[in-house]
Specification:
By secondary structure, this protein is of the alpha/beta class. The chain is 33% helix and 28% strand. It has a single domain (6-225), classed as P-loop containing nucleotide triphosphate hydrolases (Rossmann fold, 3-Layer(aba) Sandwich). It has helices at residues 48-55, 78-88, 104-114, 119-132, 148-160, 178-195; strands at residues 6-17, 20-32, 37-41, 63-68, 71-72, 89-93, 166-170, 198-202, 214-219, 222-225. The chain has a 6-stranded mixed sheet with strand order 6-7-8-3-9-10. A 4-stranded antiparallel sheet has the order 2-1-4-5, with helices on one face. Strand 7, helix 6 and strand 8 (198-202) form a beta-alpha-beta unit. It is globular and about 50 Å long. It comes from Henriciella mobilis. Residues 6-227 form the ABC transporter domain. Belongs to the ABC transporter superfamily. Macrolide exporter (TC 3.A.1.122) family. GO terms for molecular function: ATP binding; ATP hydrolysis activity; transmembrane transporter activity.
């Protein structure tokens, strides 16, 4: 069996305001394997985004351990964590955060160019991903010329362009109508499966969970198997 892409071991996350301490994660555990699609559900305010930010090296936990590709990363310097995010992680959010002055092709190619890949090569790979998303005819369009669903598919392509080991999606379809939601989520699943990435998706849309390999719920600071 291959080594897990992501492991969270006993994660503790808390926020302090003066003498008050709000504990959000209290011993959260997670193992995510290559090619696995895992859903994360829970009520608003339960800490789903906090858990995703911790897994994605955007926040540091106060306790526990985070392993990415078998490497303990919780206590690494910020510069190293930033490099790992660029090289091994892809992020998809509820709002696409595309750069309005660039067309779809260059929005997708941008992470590769930031990593030093030549523009011509980066744009070629962007075109391949856009075609897989059914957006080959929209590559030269700027975000303002695209529909909401098209913009989100561009954002997914951008998240996958650097061949991430782990894709983290925080309510990736929360801003879309049901028909567009199904199309966008199907694109995420198809590309993630073909690329072999591990995918962790936080969602309020329970209809989407039928597409997951498994679903976890976050409650009282811990992860448990969702039973419906």
């Amino acid at each position: 069996m291959s080594e897990p892409v992501l492991e969270l071991r006993g994660i503790v996350r808390e926020y302090r305001s003066g003498p008050n301490v709000l504990k959000v994660l209290e011993g959260a555990d997670l193992v995510l394997n290559k090619g696995e699609l895992v859903g994360l559900v829970g009520p608003s305010g339960s800490g789903k985004s906090t858990l995703l930010h911790t897994a994605g090296l955007l926040e540091r936990a106060e306790g526990g351990e985070v392993l990415l590709d078998g490497e303990s990363v919780l206590k690494l310097p910020d510069g190293v964590r930033t490099r790992l995010r660029r090289e091994k992680l892809g992020f998809v959010y509820q709002f696409h955060h595309l750069l309005p002055e660039f067309n779809a092709r260059d929005n997708v190619a941008m992470p590769l160019m930031v990593n030093g890949v030549k523009r011509r090569i980066a744009r070629q790979k962007a075109d391949v991903l856009l075609a897989e998303m059914g957006l080959e005819s929209r590559a030269d369009h700027q975000p303002g010329q695209l529909s909401g669903g098209e913009q989100q598919r561009v954002a997914i392509a951008r998240a996958l362009v650097n061949d991430p080991k782990l894709v983290i999606a925080d309510e990736p379809t929360g801003n879309l109508d049901p028909t567009t939601t199904d199309r966008v989520f199907a694109s995420l699943i198809r590309i993630a499966r073909s690329e072999g990435a591990a995918v962790l998706v936080a969602t309020h849309n329970m209809a989407l969970t039928r597409h997951m390999d498994r679903v976890l719920t976050l409650q009282d600071g811990k992860l448990t198997t969702f039973t419906g």
